[in-house]
Design a protein that fits this description.
Elements: H1 3-10, H2 18-24, H3 40-44, E1 55-56, H4 59-71, H5 82-87, H6 90-93, H7 99-117, H8 124-142, H9 151-164, H10 181-190, E2 200-206, E3 209-215, H11 224-237, H12 244-262, E4 270-271, H13 282-288, H14 295-298, E5 304-307, H15 322-325, H16 327-338, H17 341-364, H18 370-382, E6 384-388, H19 398-401, H20 414-433, E7 450-453, E8 458-462, H21 477-493, H22 517-521, H23 523-533, H24 546-568, E9 577-578, H25 586-596, H26 607-612, H27 618-626, E10 627-630, E11 633-636, H28 637-644
Parallel strand pairs: 1-9, 3-5, 6-8
Antiparallel strand pairs: 2-3, 4-5, 7-8, 10-11
Helix pairs in contact: 7-16, 9-11, 10-13, 11-12, 17-18, 17-21, 17-24, 21-24, 21-25, 23-24
Bound molecules: zinc ion.
GO molecular function: metal ion binding; metalloendopeptidase activity
Domain Peptidase M13 C-terminal: 449-627
Family: Belongs to the peptidase M13 family.
């Protein structure tokens, strides 16, 4: 888009009320408000005159100024190509492909460095992480072969095999009639195993709640020959002469049983009951997964579902690393050591403000049918917000308390450590299923991300987002609003995107507001789809799919609209300015700072891959969003948000 076109389009008003009209596809009347064109030269010439004592000179602000000044390509006219103007020299300045990637690398390094340095911490979880980390490092140095068992582990594995039950290979006088399947399975569970060969126990979150699931096992990926040599090695090291012929024979039987089992296909459905297999005591297996001291407290709260599989129900057919192991402890390390304490509260406050502005925006939308408006307001109002981690973990010591029943010893073998961790994870899963803790122990909590879950009407801002370069208490408030505010408002936007609309404030599907209405009322929505369909991307050309990306486009739109609203209410006159940016006025800074979120190297992935992604290209997320002309709605770079102000 060139300046002339921009000026022409300025005579068309940007009507904020049309935003939701588009989103809900229930527009009845289009409101047109005439707005006087804004003089481009006048706007571009406004500078923010500041003296040096009003500059934000925290390291975080200086880094931000550095990014704004060095990623830009001032030779490109912002009215012609805003993306290139803001991000044109990103590739020369950053070794990461995007700012998000950069944060991910730094996060990994922060935890790694922390684990190297930590000595005799007063925190139990930190000491446990350190111990596991050192073991991992040591084992990495001794062997690169994943299937090779370390010397000290061989003994532990052997002892565990004996613990599980008698084994014909070890015991020449093995008596099949004395074999107790339940006892063996129960011993396996005690060790922390959840895949029990014949079936597995895992965990499912369904709309009805959280459940332990009994399901068929997934096929083993370890090749027989690898297993055979592993078993031989263990036997030999423990003084038993392996009979390779017998081992092979047993393996053949094992393989044929596996093949037999694989023939029975699951219906994919789940049944809220225990399997109809009387020979296995499933309840006692489930009890074994709970820490013994907690059985009486939580067993009654555990619910079970079973895969509708012929194995369990009779049918007509007849018969990484440390971070992954310690997600919550890593979270604790990150929050305690790398995130400023005020940041979490700051983001909390910001989120509330954005919610309020979203509600206002819906309220101001004149063309919504009253019941629709009401249901949308109710929904946004009810969004459950989690910032960084659930409040449950806020009291000091809560995360450490999770490890009070858990001990590792520095003499433990690598095998023993992971066996104990598996056991701990089962116990923590059971606490989660019983509703005693708010997040699953396997949930990755250190994502550089924020998300909105439709089924729960819940917004989560993950901890790494509470940190620079997205949020920082030393940033002037407007910077935090432009960055984090946009990302959070984008997620709120998903509650009212084309999919989100069909769900109520509790995440239940609703009749009434459905996508079917798109064809009838979706003229405006169609305009957004068309805009991306016709977008001439500098890398891929006019090959984009607006229908596929419509939800992300809508979410971005809400993100811009809501942050713009909040910004316009903000008194920025007393806030610190950014170093080296005195030639850019506050409105311009809004666009420049937000574009930084999308600065990245030139896309190198194929068109096919790009089209699979639900996100529009980063180029579109800047240039498309700022130059949007849809039935009277126009956001255009430096200029048109000005006219939005008058609506
Ligand atoms: Zn999104």
């Amino acid at each position: 888009m060139n300046v002339k076109k921009v000026k022409e389009k300025l005579s068309r008003p940007w009507v904020a009320v049309n935003l939701l009209l588009l989103i809900v596809f229930l527009a009845m009347v289009t409101v047109h408000i005439k707005v006087e064109p804004v003089n481009l030269d006048e706007l571009l010439s406004i500078g923010n005159d500041v003296d040096s004592k009003n500059l934000c000179d925290s390291p975080e602000c200086i880094t931000l100024s550095h990014e704004l000044l060095n990623y830009q390509d001032p030779s490109v006219d912002p009215c012609v190509d805003f993306f290139q103007h803001s991000c044109g020299r990103f590739h020369e300045q950053s070794v990461s492909e995007s700012r998000l990637q950069k944060k991910k690398h730094i996060l990994r390094k922060q935890i790694r460095e922390f684990l190297h340095k930590i000595q005799n911490s007063t925190s139990k979880s930190e000491n446990l992480m350190k111990l596991v980390f050192d073991k991992c490092e040591a084992s990495k140095k001794t062997s690169n072969d994943n299937y090779k068992i370390s010397r000290d582990a061989i003994h532990d594995v052997f002892n565990d095999i004996k613990k599980i039950g008698a084994w014909p290979l070890l015991d020449k006088n093995w008596d099949g009639s004395k074999f107790d399947l339940n006892e063996m399975l129960s011993n396996l569970v005690k060790l922390g195993a959840t895949n029990l060969g014949l079936f597995q126990l895992d965990f499912r979150i369904l709309t009805e709640g959280k459940f332990v699931r009994i399901a068929p096992t997934l096929g083993s990926i370890v090749h027989n020959s690898t297993m055979i040599s592993m078993i031989s090695e263990i036997l030999e090291a423990n003084g038993v002469q392996p009979d390779s012929e017998e081992i092979s024979k047993e393996f053949e039987e094992y393989s044929s049983l596996q093949m037999k089992l694989a023939k029975y296909q699951s219906s994919g459905k789940l049944s809220i009951s225990l399997p109809g297999v009387r020979s296995i005591n499933f309840s006692s297996l489930i009890t074994e997964m709970i820490h013994p001291s907690r059985v009486s407290k939580i067993f009654g709260k555990i619910r079970v579902v079973t895969s509708e599989h012929p194995l369990f129900f009779k049918s007509n057919e007849t018969e990484s690393d440390v971070r992954r192991e310690f997600p919550r402890a890593s979270l604790r390390v990150f929050m305690r050591n790398f995130v400023d304490k005020g940041n979490r509260d700051g983001v909390k406050k910001l989120t509330e403000e954005l919610k309020k502005n979203t509600l206002e925006m819906i309220q101001d939308t004149e063309n919504l049918a009253p019941p629709v408006k009401e249901s949308m307001l109710k929904k946004v109002e009810a969004i459950k917000v989690t910032i960084g981690y659930p409040d449950h973990f806020d009291p000091p010591g809560t995360l450490d308390k999770e490890f009070e029943n858990f001990d590792l010893d520095s003499t433990d073998s690598y095998y023993r450590i992971f066996q104990k961790l598996n056991r701990l994870r089962s116990e923590q899963q059971m606490e989660f299923i019983a509703g005693e803790t708010p997040i699953s122990p396997i949930k990755e909590v250190l994502k550089v991300n924020a998300n909105y879950k439709r089924s729960k009407n819940a917004l989560t801002v993950f901890a790494p987002f509470l940190d620079d370069p997205f949020f920082d208490i030393t940033y002037p408030d407007y910077v935090n609003l432009f960055f984090s505010g946009f990302l959070i408002a984008h997620e709120i936007g998903h509650s009212v995107d084309a999919n989100g609309l069909g769900y109520d404030e509790n995440g239940k599907p609703m009749d009434g507001i459905r996508l079917e209405h798109v064809t009838e009322y979706g003229k405006q929505g169609q305009c957004l789809v068309d805009q991306y369909d016709n977008y001439d991307d500098p890398v891929y050309g006019k090959k984009m799919n607006g229908t596929h990306s419509i939800n992300e486009i809508i979410a971005d739109w809400v993100g811009h609209e809501v942050t713009w609203r909040a910004y316009k209410k903000m008194d920025t006159s007393k806030m610190l300015s950014l170093i080296g940016l005195k030639d850019i006025n506050m409105d311009q800074l809004y666009f420049r700072v937000q574009s930084l979120l999308f600065c990245r190297e030139r896309d190198t992935i194929s068109l096919e891959e790009t089209l699979k992604d639900v996100y529009p290209t980063d180029n579109f997320r800047v240039n498309g969003a700022y130059a949007r002309v849809c039935g009277g709605v126009q956001l255009s770079g430096y200029i048109t948000y000005e006219s939005g102000e008058e609506v």
